[in-house]
Amino acid sequence: MSRTLYDKLVDAHKVCDLPDGDMLIYVDFHIMNEYTSPQAFSGLDTKGLDVWRPEAHLAVVDHVNATRSSEPHDAASKLLIDNLEANCTKHGIAFYGLGDPRQGIEHVVVPEQGLVTPGMLIACGDSHTTTYGAYGALGFGIGTSEVEHVLATQTLRYKRMKSMRVMIDGATAPGVTAKDIIMKVVQVVGAGGANGYAVEFAGSAVRDLDMAGRMTVCNMAVELGARAALIAADDITERALQGHPHSGQFEFKNENWASDSEAVFDKEFTISGTDIEPLITWGTSPDQSVPITANVPISSDYLTPEAKAALGRSLQYMGLSEGQSAQSIKIDTAFIGSCTNSRIEDLREAAKILEGRHVATGVEAIVVPGSAMTRLKAEAEGLRAIFEAAGFEWRPEAGCSMCLAMNDDIAMDGERVASSTNRNFEGRQGRGARTHLMSPAMVAAAAVAGHLADVRDFK
Amino acid sequence: MKDKQMTKTINGIAAPLPLANVDTDVIMPKRFLITITREGLGDGTFADLRFDTAGGQRQEFVLNKAPWTQASILVVGDNFGCGSSREHAVWGLRQLGIDACIGTSFAGIFYDNARKNGLALPVVSPATRDALLQFANDARAGEILIDLEKRTISAGKLSEPFEMDDATQTSLIRGRDDTLDSLDYAGAIRDFEARLNNEMRIRVFK
């Protein structure tokens, strides 16, 4: 019988069915951070449980740490970081802490270390764990109680989801990136459109992406509600597996990690790659986006009173007017970073725009490389020099930083940020902060222009 | 500690919260996340909606108005609980006294986190949700009753079915500890591991 890639991954990891309708699935690899794991470890202590298989876990500090220095910026964040290290020491779990040359944002670190291969099942207490679908691996975010469960049993209780395929055929135009592709998908499918689904991305526009681009696509699939995102493994995937510290140590060759040609999906979407334009979000949900050449929506674009009210609420929070042109939106801050867009490929794209140009007066521009290794590579390639010459602040340490403002990078009330991150929620980058999501190259363009700008105008 | 008391019904005053895409950043702002315990999160729940920047109550927010200050049920907009995986959002709702959120759709991680903490998330049709919103909007309407066993919601003259998968229903009613229960299957987990060849056993360098 024909099966989807998702079904193959679930079948390969099913331990047993449970009487209540769930199944137990086996977790090959589990990643932890300092803020969603403390209560899981204390749960083990309370229940007198050990870690089932300590060598199948990795802990990375990334969410709360300052990126200006390798020292925690306050006592509360230090407590979280020290607590994670103590828990890892106690249970014999690998820990990449501040100052470790392998430290960085968990979803940047794992591929860099060669810890993901096709056919694996990876769980992590972070919603953007969908990133690993780029490798044909089943990755998904879990809550802290599930972190405890996987520590104690190496399994999770699981329900098979419905399947969705998003087919994106047709070459994208110059200036259109993986970020624009996934922002387009979120716009079309909607912020909750894939709740209950595992989403496979297919089509020539997806196959043409490099691994960094595929990770960006799968990373933000959670913004349409997908609990898992997948791209079939191919030659590009195989090449990306080579040359990392753990390369060759693991392989899962027990299946062809692609959907069978006759596989049937519960839901299908088709998007033309050729028609995608560079996008920006104007609102407070990731599906509220328009092409950079367009205007902010107007009330009559919406049919129901609820939708009109939602538009008004978003515009009020964002400090925008109906019908305002996207390029008239002036910014205070430009931020390049996050698990979505802080890889070396992202920094190269932004640097191309910045070379020989300078950030506009009054704009604060920050770049936080995704990992210590990414930073060193970027510095060796001369990217740091380009960013700094353009007036960007180059952060010496890696972490999530202003993507979710859990460290000391907090945008002020009313501050408007052009951001290469994944969520434009109210308060995400600071109470009252206004986030516009876009590709890293578009952030660079906005930083130079002082307002949201079309990257295609920066030849 | 395996078996807690059975919860077959949930009843209480329901507050209307019709906004769509209420994310876990809004439910639990990040400044409340710098903690290593599950406690003390009640004040953080919806903090930016409940309180102004000076810490004063925002009178216009529904949970600050009688009778909804006593609400134990929320009737919510589409895609409630989207965004970050933070279970703190669910812990905070429970500590605020919320036993159930009724809506048309919930984000997956939030749904699973809710189950682990005894927060019921009945899924209803848009028409039922709208009727319940209308009911909840009426300060004199009275309580809503959620029957977990029968999978029905009663509100005044209204009685409507809701969806909830069997495992979540069982878990909510029985209040079991999933981690301890799953260890009953330790043998099956070991059998599965025995079938993995050497290359399928990840070992992370320290």
From TrEMBL, chain A:
Which cofactors are named for this entry? Answer: [4Fe-4S] cluster
Does this entry carry the keyword Cytoplasm? Answer: no
Catalytic activity from the UniProt record: (2R,3S)-3-isopropylmalate = (2S)-2-isopropylmalate
Domain Aconitase/3-isopropylmalate dehydratase large subunit alpha/beta/alpha stretches: 7-450
**EC code(s) of this entry:** 4.2.1.33
Q: Which Gene3D superfamilies match?
A: Aconitase, domain 3
Q: Which InterPro entries match?
A: 3-IsopropMal_deHydase_lsu, Acnase/IPM_dHydase_lsu_aba_1/3, Acoase/IPM_deHydtase_lsu_aba, Aconitase_4Fe-4S_BS, Aconitase_4Fe-4S_dom, IPM_dehydratase_rel_enz
Is Transmembrane one of the keywords UniProt gives this record?
Answer: no
Q: What is this protein called?
A: 3-isopropylmalate dehydratase
Its ancestry begins with: Bacteria, Pseudomonadati, Pseudomonadota, Alphaproteobacteria, Rhodobacterales
Q: Which gene encodes it?
A: leuC_1
From TrEMBL, chain B:
Identify the metabolic or biological route this protein is part of. Answer: Amino-acid biosynthesis; L-leucine biosynthesis; L-leucine from 3-methyl-2-oxobutanoate: step 2/4
Q: What class of enzyme is it?
A: lyase
> Which superkingdom, per the lineage?
Bacteria
**CDD domains referenced in this protein's UniProt entry, alphabetically:** IPMI_Swivel
Question: Which InterPro entries does the record cross-reference, listed alphabetically?
Answer: 3-IsopropMal_deHydase_ssu, Aconitase/3IPM_dehydase_swvl, AconitaseA/IPMdHydase_ssu_swvl, IPMI_Swivel, LeuD
Indicate whether Signal appears among the record's keywords: no
Which example biological process does GO assign this protein? L-leucine biosynthetic process
SUPFAM superfamilies found in the cross-reference section: LeuD/IlvD-like
Q: Which Gene3D superfamilies match?
A: Aconitase, domain 4
Known role: Catalyzes the isomerization between 2-isopropylmalate and 3-isopropylmalate, via the formation of 2-isopropylmaleate.
Question: Which family does the record claim for this protein?
Answer: Belongs to the LeuD family. LeuD type 1 subfamily.
* Record's protein name: 3-isopropylmalate dehydratase
User: What organism is this sequence from?
Assistant: Planktotalea frisia
